[in-house]
Structure formats: structure tokens, C-alpha cells
């Protein structure tokens, strides 16, 4: 059950103001908007829905869940396995660097926020690249955030960042962005339920569109975002 302290910790972890640099990434949206693939709120909604159901964020959230469970058990070997798995699932250098940069930033922040004596498992990541999903899972386990709540927070944070990028790039009004986030709630809940039950051997995604957008974005002439 989500108690008040766990709820506050989740709100902090999932906040768009968390200093991990999430705001500087567009998840390929900048290229798609420039090419006219995404022109309005409805286009953005369809793209986010598809990503939540079968895209890279679906895999990330599933890895985050496995990280949370492994961290709760103190299973460092399992954490390293899923960290390597997450790195290998990245199809472009930009996407891999994004995950590492955000993950390393969150791990540094996490270690700065809690007493050293209580961060034993987190110290294993000080000398290697850590994916954001792994760092989020470790923090969620430490603060005893229930698994379903952690997944919803993770997905909501990602969705909020994508909408924030869309508001700037399309552009959309702030009210339209908030309406879009509200309309996506059923999709977020359904995705979280599916992630809770998917087996390791069934983890898969369809991310070729994101990968192509990411590769084109790397050499895009004019851009606001890092990826």
C-alpha cells in the first residue's frame, strides 16, 4: 500500500523538475515535427499511445520493475544483468547516451540525498554507466514504493516530458497539453497492468520509427533538444 512517505517520494522521483536532464530530450519528436509527421495534439496522442503499448518506454518500464524487485532483494547480479540488457536494447547512440546520462544523474542525486550507510547497493554503480530505468528502480525500492505505483509514476513522468516537448515544438497550448495528459490516463493504467504481468521471455517492442527519428535527429541542422 502506498503510504504518505512513499507517495511523496514517488512524486519527487516522477517530477519533471527532477534534475536528471529529462527536459532536454524530445524522444525523436523534434525530427518528426520538422518532417510534418506530428502536427497537432491528436498526432502526438497517437504517437504516445503507440509508444506506451509497444515502444521503447514499455521496455524501459518493464526493466524498471525488474530493477525495483532485484534492488528490494539486494540482488546486485540481477541488477547488472538488466542494466546490460537495457543498454543492449538501445538501437542508436543518442538513445543509449540519453539513458546513461539520466541514469547516472539520478544515481548521483540518490546517493547525495540518503545516508551513505543506507545506500550500499547504489554504490555498485559509481564506476559504470547506469540506465535511468535501473536507477529509478533502485530508488523506488529504497523508498518502498509499490510496484504498480512505481510503474505508473515512471510512465507518467515520461509522458509528461513528451507532452512538454510537443507543447514547445508543434506548438500546443499549455491547456491542450494538460488535456492530452488527462486523456492518456486509461492508456497509462492499461500499460502498467500489462507490464506487471509480462514474462521476461515475452519482452519485446516495435521501435524502428523511434530509431530512425533518433538517427536523423543526430544530424538535424537546427534543434532545441539533445535527442
TrEMBL record:
Gene Ontology CC, one term: cytoplasm
InterPro entries with a match to the protein in the record: UreF (IPR002639), UreF_sf (IPR038277)
Pfam families, A to Z: UreF (PF01730)
Secretion signal, residue range per the UniProt entry: 1-22
Protein keywords: Chaperone, Cytoplasm, Nickel insertion, Signal
One of the record's GO molecular function terms: nickel cation binding
Location of the protein in the cell: Cytoplasm
Function: Required for maturation of urease via the functional incorporation of the urease nickel metallocenter.
Subunit structure: UreD, UreF and UreG form a complex that acts as a GTP-hydrolysis-dependent molecular chaperone, activating the urease apoprotein by helping to assemble the nickel containing metallocenter of UreC. The UreE protein probably delivers the nickel.
Alphabetized HAMAP family for the sequence: UreF (MF_01385)
Similarity section: Belongs to the UreF family.
Protein's UniProt name: Urease accessory protein UreF
Organism: Planktothricoides sp. SpSt-374
